């Protein structure tokens, strides 16, 4: 399949702004906290992203983390050696972070009727969470929603290295819609109307909700409420109240008002906790995992 280039992304954006009258909703296309990372400068950007994720603090037992981290690392090593033959893979911290997310997302047993098969990754970075989900769920239906050129092009590049059917909005916008089929569906933030109601078992928001603007957080929570199935969950992992958010939405209050219930929120100590920052305490984790369920 054709790869999404900077030119393709910009061309579709321009057409969509016109076609969908998005002039007054440009906030859908903004990364409030990090405007300097909007522009795509080449696929090596993925190696840069691997570097950023060096903070890999977690207290989880080795025997839980290692099997998953090794699975993730095997796939990432294959991708890096295929795409960048001169680069040695030295990014095991990325695989440990993937493993810790996957463990928290699947921490306790759920009955078969609550099995997770349909996953939405909102603000997916370079797409890292497909790695373990695709290897652990054989009939996975994985949807990634992204609004930023750089991240979007890197996600398309990363996803194209997996053996799953890749349905890409930017390549065939007029034929695109999210179905129940096994595979990856990749679309921009301003086209979540192409996702059916009550679709997802699990929505992933890792280090994203605090980084986007007020209009977008409110809009996405409304969309999450529409596209999640009854009994489905939202996994949020970020620095919570230890981070100076780029928006003023009270996310817990918004979720509660829409009938979500906080199901998992352990009192782990985050790397951004003032006690940790001042050197008085050790951190348990980088980013606090929480699970909200729609009942
Ligand atoms: C700190 S990164 C986290 C990436 C990813 N969730 C992870 O854990 O690796 C924030 C992500 O939010 C995305 N983002 C920023 N503005 C967005 C928008 N308007 N729509 C969708 N995603 C956005 C960024 O492009 C980036 O992928």
Question: How would you portray this structure in words?
Answer:
The chain is an alpha/beta fold. The chain has a single domain (6-33, 116-294), classed as 3-Layer(aba) Sandwich (Rossmann fold), CATH 3.40.50. Helices cover 34% and strands 17% of the residues. The protein is built from nine helices and eight strands. It has helices spanning 6-19, 45-52, 62-83, 92-105, 130-136, 149-159, 214-227, 251-257, 274-277; strands spanning 118-122, 141-146, 166-168, 183-188, 200-206, 228-238, 260-264, 288-294. An eight-stranded mixed β-sheet has the order 3-4-2-1-5-6-8-7, with helices on both faces. Helix 3 (62-83) crosses helix 4 (92-105). The longest helix has 22 residues, at 62-83. It is globular and about 55 Å long. 38% of the residues are buried. The mean pLDDT is 96. Bound molecules: S-adenosylmethionine. Residues 28-31, 123-125, 128, 146-148, 151, 189, 206-208, 211-212, 216 line the site of S-adenosylmethionine. S-adenosylmethionine binds next to loops.
Average residue-wise pLDDT: 96
How many domains is the backbone divided into? Answer: 1
Provide the CATH superfamily: Vaccinia Virus protein VP39
CATH topology: Rossmann fold
Q: Which structural category fits the helices and strands?
A: alpha/beta
Strand content: 15-25%
Q: Termini separation (Å)?
A: 39 Å
The percentage helix is 25-40%
Radius of gyration based on Cα positions:
18 Å
Q: Which ligands occur here? A: S-adenosylmethionine
Q: If strands are numbered along the chain, what order do they take across the biggest sheet?
A: 3-4-2-1-5-6-8-7
Which outline best applies? globular
Number of strands: 8
Please mark out the parts with pLDDT under 50 across 5 or more consecutive residues, or reply none: none
What is the overall number of helices?
9
Quaternary assembly: single chain
Largest sheet: 8 strands, mixed
Sketch the topology as an H/E string, one letter per element. HHHHEHEHEEEHEHEHE
CATH C-level name: Alpha Beta
CATH 2nd-level architecture: 3-Layer(aba) Sandwich
